[in-house]
Design brief:
225 residues; alpha/beta; Rossmann fold; globular; binds cytidine-5'-monophosphate
């Protein structure tokens, strides 16, 4: 699955960072740090699928492509900060809606605009998700595949959800992540996979800081003359 980006204005000479990862591997945290350090527009593309999932859960009778198109056309990055999008229920529905080709197409237009035409105040963009290196930003300057063991990821997500007072058990989180991995890796359209040209980073035994420093080294080498 590939998308034509000729309908989207492309800013020249911007830095584009693309990150793919399975759920809870630490990609979002790194994307935030990278974006802050290099002044990039950050988009957690999973949040857009979660936004769609939230509509499916809360407005089931209105949920159709035309309605979604309208909602996504009006979507602003700030809307993705909505705390309701963080729940496990929304995550599971997000991985279901993410299998729908038409929904992916609607979501991709928004993602392409963020990647290729970030507001002028930014030096570029940093997107993370499942199909960023392969489909959304195949010409990114830096491509990373961030992963961690299943147990590490489940524990991290469990702590995150628990801190937000969610009534959830570790075994439920583990099951949910396993299920999403299976669905994201095996789906026909835009499955999660490491592209040959992306750099693999396993964060299982890496602190957030050490992981960031590794990435910083990769980016600096690439962009600083
Ligand atoms: O990253 P996050 O866990 O928020 O993503 C929620 C779901 O959205 C994923 O499980 C995946 O199915 C879907 N997704 C996707 N493509 C992306 C980002 C997320 O299919 N680029």
């Amino acid at each position: 699955m590939s998308y034509k980006i000729n309908k989207i204005n492309k800013r020249k000479n911007i830095i584009k960072v693309a990150i793919d990862s399975p759920a809870a591997a630490g990609a979002g945290t790194q994307a935030k740090l990278i974006s802050k350090h290099y002044n990039l527009l950050q988009l957690d593309t999973g949040r857009v699928y979660r936004f769609v999932a939230n509509i499916k859960i809360n407005e089931p009778y209105k949920f159709n492509y035309a309605y979604l198109k309208k909602k996504i056309n009006k979507l602003k990055i700030e809307d993705l900060e909505n705390k309701n999008l963080l729940s496990d229920k929304v995550a599971i529905v997000a991985s279901l809606v993410a299998k729908d080709r038409k929904i992916r197409k609607l979501v991709h237009t928004f993602q392409l605009k963020c990647a290729y035409n970030p507001p002028k105040k930014y030096a570029g963009s940093c997107l993370d998700g499942r199909d960023i290196c392969s489909v959304i930003v195949p010409d990114a300057d830096i491509k990373l595949f961030i992963t961690a063991s299943l147990k590490t990821r489940a524990l991290r997500r469990y702590k995150e959800l628990k801190a937000k007072n969610n009534y959830i058990s570790y075994s439920d989180v583990l099951k949910s992540i396993k299920k999403r991995d299976k669905s994201d890796i095996n789906r026909k359209i835009s499955p999660l996979k490491k592209t040959k040209d992306s750099i693999l980073l396993n964060t299982s035994n890496l602190s957030i800081r050490r992981c960031f420093l590794k990435i910083k080294k990769i980016i600096d080498k690439k962009i600083i003359i």
